[in-house]
Amino acid sequence: MPVDHFDPLNKDTFQMRYMYNEVFFGGNGSPVFILVGGEWDIVPAWLLAGNMFQMASENNGYIMYTEHRYYGQSLPYQNFTTENLRFLNVDQALADLAYFIRDVVRTQERFANSKIILCGGSYAGNMVLWFKQRYPHLVVGVVASSAPILAKVDFTGYLEVVHEAYQLEGGDECIAIIRQGIEDTITAMQTEEGRKLIDKIYRLCSPPNYDNKYDLGHFSGLISWSFSISVQYGRPGTVLNVCNNFKNNTYGSTPMEQIGGYIAASRGLTTCWNVTYDDYVNIHTSNTNSRAWRYQTCTEYGYYQTAPKIGTVFDPLIWLDVDFYVGVCKRVFGPKFDEAFVYNAADRVNTVFGGLKPDVNNTLNVHGYIDPWRALGVYEEDLKESSPTYTVPRASHGFDMQSWHATDTIRISQIQQRVRTIVAGWLS
């Protein structure tokens, strides 16, 4: 794959990994389903189960799974210096897909007349929508799951949806416990005795510097990110179970103990938490997916989950602000990656791809209502008559891509079936 699709003088290439499963392929001209990878390592499991797997089964389709540049084993450079990361952006990644279709798919005689369907979730959901907009001649249609297509730096909406999820699932009693636990934590920060209690209850390896707002930002993140993980990756009933545990004092006897116990239990803590800002920054300093994705947030999307200001339980975590997140950009990539740079980068993405109004046809746009990322997607209206939107109560991030679960609601199963029916219509 070319490292730079837009400079013909740059002849550098890299190895782009992909996987495939041909078990259902019906022969020459049968459809090709391509699952688009995002900010992760691709794994074979997604070629062996899930709603796209079911689509391929029903339509005699060939399945492929592509890996995004700079993630997993698809590395233009082994060393993720700021200079080497300059080719990590969605424009290059979309071009990778176009070249993949041209040079890998279409060069095989059996696929010469095949219709191609793209599927993607989360950031890869953005990619498939934007691919249909930029390269409409290459694919018949796309399925975008939980796509946060609006780049936004100060993303308070994420935690607003997390709050709403706990309210919807657990009611006022659950919200009251969480609110009191966080407020008691903030109060405890003001005294030496309270700080020692925080160290104990939250299982901290060492206390944060209470005079350093960035340390307090990381500690605040330990709280907010733990609550959001249960929502974003939960199935129907996950959040309700957490709330029931709060009501039954499963995690502790006081609201603050409940929160500290919940964080440890839900995230499988085995030792203690490191919550200094240096600990947070260091996550993004090695050649890993975390560093690559941080670079994309600094140069394209923002997506920073900041504390709301509308009365949620997370409002008191004021140290979770744009400066906290952008500070990482400056520390790990250089001083030019400041707030002005990050805001301009997000504006550029919205200008190029249309923000919440992408110009697409033959797309399916699916969201779960309690998915925090739906706040940056189109979830209340169709993108176009030919591009319907489906938003499902009690469902969260990427629910429609997965296999059937015993906890699935009837509505979840109905939408998965509806997606398959529409895709079959595109192929007929």
TrEMBL record:
Tell me which domain of life the UniProt entry assigns to the organism this sequence originates from: Eukaryota
- Tell me yes or no: is rRNA-binding among this UniProt entry's keywords: no
- Note the Gene3D superfamilies from the entry: alpha/beta hydrolase, Serine carboxypeptidase S28, SKS domain
UniProt entry keywords in alphabetical sequence: Glycoprotein, Hydrolase, Protease, Signal
Which sequence ranges form a coiled-coil region, renumbered to this chain? Answer: none
Q: Extract one GO BP annotation from the record.
A: proteolysis
Q: Which Pfam families match?
A: Peptidase_S28
Question: Its Gene Ontology molecular function terms?
Answer: dipeptidyl-peptidase activity; serine-type exopeptidase activity
Record family assignment = Belongs to the peptidase S28 family.
Q: What is this protein called?
A: Uncharacterized protein
Organism the protein comes from: Diatraea saccharalis (sugarcane borer)
